[in-house]
Design brief:
Number of strands: 12
CATH class of the largest domain: Alpha Beta
Shape: globular
Order of helices and strands: HEHHEEEEEHHEHHEEEEEH
Distance between the termini: 42 Å
CATH superfamily of the largest domain: Hotdog Thioesterase
Strand content: 25-35%
Structural class: alpha+beta
Radius of gyration: 20 Å
Number of helices: 8
Helix content: 25-40%
CATH topology of the largest domain: Thiol Ester Dehydrase, Chain A
Number of domains: 2
Length: 315
């Protein structure tokens, strides 16, 4: 296996190259850096190159009704990316199963500074039958050729895997005290070549729910920004529970689960508005962020008290 060594370039040269681009100004948010959902867009772009390196070319997948589907993504954000910042993607398998595979993705700038890392559980997907199927022998052989050990810098740090998400209903979520913080339809341009909504747009629903969550707690995001204080995502884990297709309607329910000195644990639940079925669950470690120093700082006492009053703690 190719493993990280003191020779960074040798490690990078052993990974699958792919995405290479720039953060655009319209992809940056109120905090002055690349929005979380657009990192997931880059991850989807890198996945094209990963699949091709593993013997799954676009033409082959179309001919054989095959594809891949993300089941869970764990992401750590290591460094801010401003408008105009460069991103270079690389990837490799770290765990290989019969129908699933865990992929390490990393994005660095042009000077090889680490920006973010993804640990993504994917499945081999039959796009006609809409179910997981075994990998081909050719793909398994190539996956073992590229396999690496999980780099420490890409492993979960403060946020564990969501694990197996049990049956969660919208009614239970409402009764528990989660606030409705988002509602939107699914557009054709948000869906990928495999016939369902791309992961980037699941995450878009979560990021757009955040200001509404703060408002439901009696806190105004814009007021915080005017005082030089924002909130940024340090780590996120998203579980994709059900397929979302063009024309579906979605609702997001959100709350804060835990509060620490400088961070909170936010939970978003995304439901199919027609059926009430859970489509995705995201947990985010969100940092209280000084917009001048660009560093984490303790929550103001008044903000902490408000959060503690309104959050829905774990049982």
């Amino acid at each position: 296996m190719n493993q990280p060594t003191d020779n960074l370039q040798a490690f990078l040269d052993g990974l699958i190259p792919g995405y290479q681009g720039v953060a655009q100004s319209w992809e940056c948010d109120l905090m002055g850096h690349l929005n979380v959902s657009f990192y997931f867009g880059r991850s989807s772009d890198q996945a094209f190159f990963t699949r091709q390196a593993l013997g799954m070319s676009p033409s082959q997948m179309r001919a054989q009704n095959r594809g891949t589907v993300a089941l869970e993504e764990h992401v750590r954000f290591h460094r801010e990316v401003p408008s105009g910042g460069t991103l270079v993607g690389r990837s490799a398998p770290i765990e290989i199963g019969e129908k699933t595979m865990t992929i390490h993705q990393e994005f660095r700038d042009s000077d090889a500074n680490l920006l973010c890392t993804f640990k993504t559980l994917i499945g081999h997907f039959d796009t006609a039958a809409r179910r997981l199927v075994p990998w081909s022998e050719a793909t398994l052989a190539l996956a073992h050729k590229y396999q690496i050990a999980q780099p420490d810098f890409g492993a979960p740090k403060f946020l564990p895997s969501n694990g197996r998400v049990g049956a969660i209903t919208r009614a239970q979520t409402q009764a528990a005290g989660f606030a409705r913080c988002g509602g939107a339809g699914v557009n054709s341009w948000e869906c990928d070549q495999f016939g369902h909504m791309n992961t980037m747009f699941y995450v878009r629903r979560l990021t757009e729910a955040a200001p509404h969550m703060w408002h439901a707690m009696g806190l105004n995001l814009l007021d915080g920004i005017s005082q030089g204080r924002g909130s940024v995502v340090g780590e996120i884990c998203v579980s994709y529970i059900g397929e979302v297709k063009e024309g579906d309607t979605l609702e997001t329910y959100s709350t804060i689960r835990e509060i620490n000195e400088k961070t909170v644990l936010v939970e978003h639940r995304l439901f199919n508005a027609e059926t009430g079925a859970l489509s995705a669950l995201g947990r985010l470690r969100v940092v209280n962020f000084n917009l001048t120093t660009r560093r984490a700082e303790p929550w103001p006492d008044a903000v902490r008290k408000t959060i503690e009053t309104h959050m829905v703690a774990f049982d």
